[in-house]
Amino acid sequence: MSIIRCENLCRVFTLADGSRLQALKNVNIDIEEGKLTILKGRSGSGKTTLLNLLGGLDRPDSGKVFLDEREIQDLKGMERVRMRRENIGFVFQSVALIPTMNARENVEYSLRLAGIGKGRKERTLECLAAVGLSERETHFPEEMSGGEQQRVAVARAMAHKPKVIFADEPTGALDTATGLQVIKLLKDMIAKEHITVVMTTHDPGIMQFGDAGYELEDGEIIGKW
């Protein structure tokens, strides 16, 4: 069953010199619920642009995006913000933890944004335990390794039990062993939390872990598996 699908997505950016770059051209994909779907492509292929459109961080110039059969590309204002806060989690290559918050506070913050009050402390500690960081809950980002920071980011993304987590090159800044640990975390999260994960990567070694995938080149889908 598809949880996300898009129809004929197009996205054009206007560059500083006034020229136009077509980042996506008539993209059609279906993301199956409860699976790890990988968007593969070189830098500049359009995979991050596609991820941003699917996650409601950007709007297409034309085409449609559906989350649970609800069109999201035209949502306005707080309705759009609420959709993201309640249904979507994000994990970025840059981690994007709040430096003035410790691990526990970073994870709890996503629950606050989602408007979840009851059981917030218990859920925060549960998520940190799930990523193996119970003993690091009071540590700040600067006191943690890159792999630990990324695990906190995964815990934060899953805390409010979203329907979908979008992960943009989550292993790109990590060594191979640590990157594989993060992939295992995402797979475990799918199995235990019944969350769908959509991940971008250009690393061929990561492809084997996906349940499905699409390859992009110059803004177009050129392959599916």
Key features of this structure:
225 residues, Rossmann fold, 6 helices, 29% strand
N-to-C series of helices and strands: EEEHEEHEHHHEHEEE
Strand content: 25-35%
Radius of gyration: 17 Å
- Counted by DSSP, the helix tally is 6
- Low-confidence sequence ranges: none
Distance between the termini: 16 Å
What does this molecule look like?
With 225 residues, the chain is an alpha/beta fold. It has one domain: Rossmann fold. It has six helices and ten strands. The protein has helices at 47-54, 77-87, 103-113, 120-130, 146-158, 176-193; strands at residues 2-14, 20-32, 36-40, 62-67, 70-71, 88-92, 164-168, 196-201, 212-217, 220-224. A hairpin with a 2-residue loop joins strand 4 (62-67) and strand 5 (70-71). It is globular, with a radius of gyration of 17 Å. The model has no long low-confidence stretch (mean pLDDT 93).
Summarize the structure.
This protein is α/β, with parallel strands linked by helices. The protein has 6 helices and 10 strands.
Helix-strand layout with pairing:
Elements: E1 2-14, E2 20-32, E3 36-40, H1 47-54, E4 62-67, E5 70-71, H2 77-87, E6 88-92, H3 103-113, H4 120-130, H5 146-158, E7 164-168, H6 176-193, E8 196-201, E9 212-217, E10 220-224
Parallel strand pairs: 3-8, 3-9, 6-7, 7-8
Antiparallel strand pairs: 1-2, 1-4, 4-5, 9-10
